[in-house]
Amino acid sequence: MLYRNEGDGTFTDVTSAATVGAGSLVGAGACFLDADGDGLLDLYVGNYVDFTYANNVVHGTRGFKEYAGPRDYRPVPDFLFHNNGDGTFADISDVSGVNHAAGTSMGMVAADYDRDGDTDIFVLNDVAGNFFFVNDGHGHFEESGTFNGAAYNMYGDELGSMGVDCGDYDNDGWLDFIMTSYQGELPVLYHNLGNGQLEDITMTAKAGAGAYPYVNWGVGLVDLDNDADRDIFMACGHLQDKIDLYDDSTGYEVRNLVLMNKGAGIFENVSEQCGDGLAPKRSSRGTGFDDLDNDGDLDVVVVNSRRAPTIIKNVSTPTNHWLQIRLCGTKSNRDGIGAGPGHGRRLAFGGRSPWRARLPKRLWFTLAVWIGPARPC
Description:
Blueprint: E1 3-5, E2 11-13, E3 27-33, E4 42-47, E5 58-61, E6 64-67, E7 79-83, E8 89-91, H1 93-96, E9 105-111, E10 120-125, E11 131-135, E12 141-143, H2 145-148, E13 164-167, E14 176-179, E15 188-192, E16 198-200, H3 202-205, E17 216-222, E18 231-236, E19 257-261, E20 267-269, E21 284-290, E22 299-304, E23 310-312, E24 322-325, E25 365-368
Antiparallel strand pairs: 1-2, 3-4, 4-7, 5-6, 7-8, 9-10, 10-11, 11-12, 13-14, 14-15, 15-16, 17-18, 18-19, 19-20, 21-22, 22-23, 24-25
């Protein structure tokens, strides 16, 4: 479904008019990006598995029915729709190369990970090797997940990959990636080495603290305390709604997690000290981050399965100054989607140069910058 913002607080379903209706497929993720650098936002749509009511599979554990997994069905190739500039899109999945491999797509994020001035796409596949589509600058993509290290974790395992986000967690000028996974698996923090390679440093960075017993979904690599480095927020909740009846090591509805970046590339699980915003127990799924009340810190919206969303207000007192920017492109899209380190968008204050990738889910964003103690004019 594609909804057009009418600018007056209402939205119009333009799926058919925009020609992005993909039929009765199981979709789990989508993102906007400027694939070919023409200034128009194209649309990547991930497909999960070839499911129909006729081929439904039911499993059971200790007498309890369970939902089937992705290995019970065939994977389905994804779509890439090119923006024609007139409100319609053209299917370029084949000519762009993104449908040359079929996967079980879940979360995805578009970013210029190699700083060559174009936008690449990291696509998670559930219980299969992830895809990393590297852009050649003209809107043609080569799947390079195995080559650059993004397909698997450090042990070569296929994970129950769920959600993904990116950001420069160590302020070295290169975009890193965090992905979540299933119960009994650690999330993965991929450190960008700057040479086209990504390294799993989850264990040394302690980026999976507290996550192992739970199914983790939406994730954000975001600065929650305005200290100019990225913290981690993870939404948690099981897929199997009867899991509490036969497995006491996890839970269907659980608390979400916050891991604070302590600097020097180390994270600490501070979920118990974050206040009552982390108190609700839900079976959470998607996450969104924005400064909802314009007070200089990032708030959180969490989508919960079969329950109302959770809105978490950040009541931290910013110890550093903050700056809110609205990007208005002249030759590119007005929201600056696709701007990355390779495009030269950088602010440096007090010897530190934090970088936030401009992601499609953030139309407005807050960039925390460290500038030292305030001085009188």
